[in-house]
Amino acid sequence: MAQTAGQTAHERAAEWLEHGGLRPTRQRLALATLLVGDGEDRHVTAESLFEMAAGAHEKVSLATVYNTLRAFCDAGLMNEVVVDGAKSYFDTRMDDHPHFFWEDNAVLTDAPKEELEVARLPSAPEGTEVSRVDVVIRLRRNP
Q: I want to staple 58 with a disulfide (CB 3.0 to 4.6 A). Which of 8, 53, 66, 113 is the partner?
């Protein structure tokens, strides 16, 4: 999504939703503004986005946040990154790139993609294709 100089957070969010073919409901606009309104990429959990919304005095339920994040992923606006099979993070950066998962504080950040080399992937089973490869590098601080 190309950004225009002088664009407001609300305009940026509305354009983002339009890019995904989503109707700009009040809740979607509010959450999209928190996610992309400043033009920065971010990683959120449903819970952290819910807390951001509450801090911005936006009235949305946690269930609405989950459903909206799912709609954003289905529309190709975000990627879901699953850590430990139970914890999902949602990433607004859509190019292929690896992540660092900081175990001490459960934070997901981008890792430098220019330093990652994937030499070969296994062949996909017959009748399937690889849709995406997620690389999550788990970090633990030295004692």
A: 53
- The string of pLDDT tens digits covering residues 110-128 is 999 999 998 899 999 999 9
Q: Cβ contacts of residue 130 below 8 Å, gap of 6+?
A: 121, 124
Q: How confident is the model at residue 86 (pLDDT cuts 50, 70, 90)?
A: confident
Architecture category of domain 9-139 in CATH = Orthogonal Bundle (1.10)
Q: Is 130 exposed, middle or buried (0-12, 13-18, 19+ CB in 10 A)?
A: exposed
The whole-model pTM stands at 0.87
Burial of 80 (0-12, 13-18, 19+ CB in 10 A): middle
Every domain of the chain and the residues it spans: 9-139
Name the nearest CA neighbour of 13 among 63, 55, 72, 70: 72
